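tl;dr need the bound structure. longer version: we got a ligand (zinc ion) that a collaborator sent over and nobodys looked at where it sits. i said id run it. heres the input, straight from their email, havent touched it
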Amino acid sequence: MVKKFAMHEEEFICDICYMKVTKLYKSVRNHCPFCLTSKHADINPGDRSHACGGIMYPIDIEQGEKDKYKIVFCCEKCHEIKRNVMADDDNYDLILEIVREKAHKSVKGA
Ligand SMILES: [Zn+2]
Ligand SMILES: [Zn+2]
C-alpha cells in the first residue's frame, strides 16, 4: 500500500484557538480537538493541495458506522462540505452545543 497522505505527525498550534494540539494515538488529526475547526487545504486528507485555505467550521454531527460519529464541516470561503471522523479527545461540550443548536433550528423550521 502506498502511503500518499502526510498527516500531522507532530504537535502543532491551532490557527484558530491557539491551543497546543498533541499527536493523536493510533490515528491522525484532521481537525482541532478544542475548537473543532480545520483548514480547507486538502483534496485528499493531508495532501495540502487545495488552494482554498479557508477555515472549515463544524456545522453538524452525523452518526456513521459502528457508532463512530462524524463531524460535518463547512468551509467559510467556498462553502464546501466535508466530513471527518470524530476523535476520542474532541471537545465534547462543543459537540453537544452543535447538536443542540441543530435540534433547535429544526424545531423552529429555519
Ligand atoms: Zn483550535
Ligand atoms: Zn474552501
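gonna send this back to them w/ a short note. DSSP finds one helix and six strands in the chain.
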